[in-house]
Amino acid sequence: MAFVTEWFWFFLLLPIAALSGWVIGRRGGERHSDTQVSRLSTTYFRGLNYLLNEQPDKAIELFLHIAELDKETFETQVALGHLFRRRGEVDRAIRLHQGLVQRPDLSDQQKVQALLALGEDYMRSGLLDRAETVFTELAALDQRAPQALRHLISIYQAERDWPKAIENATRFEEATGEPMGKLVGHFECELAERLLSTGDIDGARAAVARAYAADSKSVRAGILEGRIEREAGNDAAAIRAFERAARHDTDFLPEILPALLAAHARIGDGPGARAFLAEMTEHYRGIAPVLALARLIETEQGVGEARAYLAEQLKDRPSVRGEAALIELTLAEANADPTRTLHDLKHITDQLLVRNPSYRCGRCGFGARSHHWQCPSCKEWGSIKPLLNYAVV
After folding, report:
1. 189 is known to lie in a ligand binding site
2. Strand 384-386's sheet: what is its strand order?
3. CA 41 from chain center: how many Å?
4. Which parts of the chain span the membrane according to its record (predicted)?
5. Local structure of 384: helix, strand or coil
6. Nearest CA to 62 among 49, 73, 78, 79?
7. Between the CA of residue 213 and those of 50, 166, 180, 195, 201, what are the distances in Å?
8. 387 inside domain
């Protein structure tokens, strides 16, 4: 049924476009007889009947027949080519759209539409060089052809030609007003990665600067800048870059922390590391900054202080990794109170059990704490079952 819903309007519009051409022709008395119109209308309704009865293959064949009979209507032929492409008959789509492009009676708008369709055919068939030529011609023909520019961006991404991808993303933003800064930022970072791999540090730095100019909150640019400065031996600059990246998006903190803390350690800046980790525990609900801070406390103040800090933090943010670290610290503490640790672990485990789902839908993955016979998400019946780690025998 989903297939019918997705394709219904496309198939509906295709014969309507054809029928409008027949009606015009009938009014002029030149192209189609009443008998032909009646016969094609009957075919059209047979196709709709196939769709409604969930027989899309038969419907497709009928609509192809309708479109092939109306070879003069431009919109119908473009739609027919799209249908060939969707069916995997890319060669037929290419031949049809090539013929349309060469028609002398097309308006400028129709020429643009036919070129777009032909370029999409080439992309589907993997002929990226031909697609690039078509879309470049189209962008030159109509500077406001955003689809052509979007396709060129896709082509240059596939070819990893980052300068051209950047150029066309910039042109796309100028033509449409749609912000492309984040995408351009990633392209500049890809270019920086390439330059860095060849030892061109200055070129990589320049690319990172352009990435920041395109996207001032680029986490990737911050991480790259940190890597560049770290490899150049500028740990203070690397720390600034890594910390800026973490503040822009704390979700990336686990990726940033190892290199950041290593840089702090190399310059002996324990207080700076502790201050940053304390800041992150206020903004990041994961366990990574807590575990890192516990390790620093262990180094500077001893195992007992680290264990006490971690146990207190885990009451608010229970974590399996945190439990493992707490057990490790307890085993390392000479005078540890096992009863106290067991109480802490039980509290943490209770919190984890409360927060984790006890049931999950096998169809869509929806998690629930209580059982539902019908999934609230996908509406499937009987698909929600107890999780294996919940069942008790």
Report:
1. no
2. 367-368, 359-361, 384-386
3. 43
4. 6-24
5. strand
6. 49
7. 55, 13, 12, 18, 18
8. yes
Note the pLDDT tens digit of each residue in 20-42: 444 444 444 444 444 444 555 55
- Helix/strand/coil percentages in the chain, nearest 5: 75, 5, 25
Task: Flag whether 350 is in a domain.
Answer: no
Q: Model confidence at 145, in pLDDT bands (50, 70, 90)?
A: confident
Residue 252, token pair as written in the block: 């990336």
Per the annotation, does 375 bind a ligand? yes
- CA–CA distance, 326 with 337 (Å, rounded to integer): 12
pTM greater than 0.90: no
Q: For residue 130, give every residue at least 6 positions away whose Cβ sits within 8 Å of its Cβ, in sequence order, or none.
A: 122
If one counts the domains in the chain, the total is 1
How far apart are the C-alpha atoms of 253 and 49, rounded to whole Å?
56
Return the residue matching tokens 């945190």: 322
State the residue range of the domain holding 386: 357-393
| Separation CA 168–CA 146 (nearest Å) | 10
Q: Is 380 part of a structural domain of the chain?
A: yes
Provide DSSP, 21-62.
HHHHHHHHTSS--HHHHHHHHHHHHHHHHHHHTT-HHHHHHH
In a domain, 321, yes or no: no
Q: Which helix (H) or strand (E) holds 367?
A: strand 367-368
Question: Do 119 and 148 contact (CB within 8 A), yes or no?
Answer: yes
Q: Report the C-alpha gap between 131 and 146 in whole angstroms.
A: 15
Mean pLDDT value across residues 137-158: 76
Average pLDDT score over the chain: 76
Angle, CA of 304, 309 and 315, to the nearest 5°: 130
According to the model, what pLDDT value does residue 28 have? 43
